[in-house]
Design brief:
The structure is a single chain. Helix 1 packs antiparallel against helix 4. This protein starts with a helix and ends in an 8-residue tail after the last helix. The chain is globular and about 50 Å long. The protein has one domain. With 142 residues, the chain is an all-alpha fold. This is DUF2798 domain-containing protein.
Length: 142
């Protein structure tokens, strides 16, 4: 997700697909990944699951519905947080700090449109499929 969103945001900044765009995304990826993982582990994951299971998901619902609901509950706060991160990084590069909140809000609108489908249609299914290949059902024993 972080790499996909880094590429998308580099595209928004560059305005075209180019080697410079890919380079910008790739060079910013390691630190963005660390920030995203810290936010996910320390803030978003637990709260998203709490909201999903307390207010949205019923125990009798299918695993698919539970997975989609949790994904949505995680994507939205991650977009909010990482869009703020992107606004700050952009301000650091341009030196323009006057409209930081406006840029953050603008980033949220653009990023949620790509992050939700990316997570629900590509990243989520790919990770689940890979995880099940590496750890088939019934193989892990506690």
């Amino acid at each position: 997700m972080v790499l996909g969103m880094s590429l998308y945001n580099a595209y928004l900044i560059q305005g075209q697909v180019s080697a410079a765009m890919v380079s910008q995304a790739w060079l910013g990826f390691p630190f963005a990944y660390i920030v995203a993982m810290a936010l996910d582990v320390l803030v978003v994951s637990k709260n998203a699951k709490t909201v999903a299971f307390k207010y949205i998901i019923k125990p009798e619902q299918s695993q698919a519905v539970k997975g989609i609901t949790i994904s949505i509950c995680m994507v939205i706060p991650m977009v909010i947080c990482m869009s703020g991160y992107g606004a700050v990084i952009g301000a650091l590069h341009t030196g323009i700090w006057q409209d930081l909140v406006g840029q953050w809000i603008n980033n949220i609108g653009k990023n949620v449109l790509v992050a939700l489908p990316l997570q629900l249609l590509i990243a989520g299914p790919l990770v689940r499929k890979t995880f099940r290949r590496v750890f088939p059902v019934g193989v892990i024993q506690g």
